[in-house]
Design brief:
Helix content: 10-25%
Order of helices and strands: HEEEEEEEHH
Strand content: 25-35%
Number of strands: 7
Shape: globular
Strand order of the largest sheet: 1-2-3-6-7
Number of helices: 3
Largest sheet: 5 strands, antiparallel
Length: about 150
């Protein structure tokens, strides 16, 4: 997959989320987002930290770019790093720049500090988050897979 990504040979495709309830927390300018996964009726399964480029708003939603590295955090706050080999390969292929690597290193420290302090996305109040029953499931606009990206 990574050589194709490095060569620009990839396509956006529609996909439907089908397991658990997922809440994504985004912080403007941050090189990470945090997904909280809940079982129905709402028990926290895990936090999943995606290290990624800061999101950008677009006319149809938001865009970001996954920087391969992830952190899986259990409800007891034990954690494990995921995809470090892919991250290293992406660095070698030039998908992740030196500047992005520096940003990811800082984001790693920031996330671990938030976790240690139980603040931000790791604050206890998020454990009890529930999707409102009257909320409709979101759908992508029909042109979501053909909308021009910031890169062209």
């Amino acid at each position: 997959m990574l050589p194709n990504l490095a060569a620009g040979k990839w396509e956006l495709a529609a996909w439907t989320w089908e397991t658990n309830t997922k809440l994504t927390l985004l912080v403007p300018g941050a090189y990470f987002s945090v997904d909280l996964f809940f079982r129905d009726p709402g028990d926290l399964v895990m936090w999943y930290v995606n290290f990624e480029r800061p999101f950008q708003r677009t006319p149809i939603g938001i865009d970001t770019f996954d920087l391969m590295l992830d952190l899986v955090i259990e409800p007891d706050t034990s954690y494990r790093w995921k995809d470090e080999g892919e991250y290293t390969q992406a660095r070698q292929l030039g998908i992740i720049t030196d500047d992005e690597h520096h940003q990811v290193q800082q984001a790693r420290e920031q996330v671990l500090a938030l976790l240690d302090q139980r603040t931000g996305p790791f604050d206890e109040r998020w454990r009890s988050w529930r999707r409102e029953a009257h909320w409709q499931l979101p759908t992508l606009p029909v042109n979501a897979t053909t909308w021009p990206t910031p890169a062209g």
